[in-house]
């Protein structure tokens, strides 16, 4: 964190804080060691033997997404844009999570595929499978690098360790427990990390609100600061989208973020879907994202509000500093919006609580990176190595290979960390990646799942041309053909990728031959028996409060209320 003198951010950590941190690391590695006992096959390592209860996978589902980029990136967005950032949760997450649980999980879990690219292979053949597998693996390495860079920056600033030492220590800890216990170790640690993150951020939010004079004090300060009262209402969110027209801003949020980017991420991103696939029954798999949606809708209050508080109380981010950053220039103080949470912790938290807060931040980084690694090793081992390089080896070979791949991925992530370091708001970087990789994949997926006529060739060409069109929009924006501030370029790239993918898929379908219907049972909605999509809720899955559709209805109603209230 660049020009900002490290001394300004150095937290005054005392012995009690270091003891709490050491205890946390021992706990994390202990979970990895205990989880190793349950790993005897590659399915145990990559998918927890499909044996975990819904509440565990539901919390892991959220925690896997509550990585460094989510916690630091959303607080950075809170400092820069204010409450419109809540759209990433209420519009850009929950509807898609509910759709995944109600509509798509039955296909993933019922077809017994081991990954999302494997589902693509069954529906569209080897070419689409390979394109999806390679692009997903690349995306995970880039995102893991962003998590690692943030983690190293924070450890460097908080504890004074050099960046390279921080990167290696953090990477070794995540690698150790992921390579030991596979997905089970990652998931159980994600559940622990969820509670640690909440325990770190709730006190910070409460103390911060107290300092600014409660909600009314925050409203007053934001209204009279750069960005003004527009930052206190989630709609129309024009600062966030970069559109001057309110109508276009709402359209960009609802269609670009709420539909294309959001559904693309939550329903086809194997990092998330993998957690639900580890559940022990169809009902538990469907409930996983729905259970996760309840804490998800309240997380904005503990990540966005601290960012908003930082932007009106922390000297390095207020007044002319915030004006400069919002205009795309460097702040006179040298701080960036990515520093918001750290600066607030520096100003507000006493020792002891500081140790918990540091552990919470490190927990969020490790949860995000472990999720990237555990999904990367599954896709690389099953979908690339086993499918195209070494086909018929014994199961133990793939188990050992998966552990080796985890180590290789960690080294690559150390390499991609420096790419992330070039962005002053990491949310911009992340949304750009999603528009490249997830938006076209979602278009191919949703069309192939509901249109039985769609052909294998359409699946491949739609994906390739859709991805290329998103990259074209990004390049045009970077070279000045058009300019959209905020995250508008990502929204536009996602919309273009989705529309182009659909158009190309439809055109190619009508000049190529479809698969016989018999081969599409369980892969296309209209050709799958209702019973195999639902599965009877018996035993542990019985009870009205375990019905996926009812739970999803409650979550959706609460989300609509939050959108109206804010």
UniProtKB/TrEMBL annotation:
It is a multi-pass membrane protein. Keywords: Membrane, Transmembrane, Transmembrane helix. It is found in: Membrane. Signal peptide: none annotated. Its main location: membrane. The chain crosses the membrane at residues 15-35, 55-76, 88-109, 130-152, 158-180, 192-210, 247-268, 289-312, 353-380, 401-423, 429-451, 458-477, 489-511, 549-565. CDD domains: SLC5sbd_u2 (cd11478). Belongs to the sodium:solute symporter (SSF) (TC 2.A.21) family. This is Sodium:solute symporter family protein. It comes from Amycolatopsis cynarae.
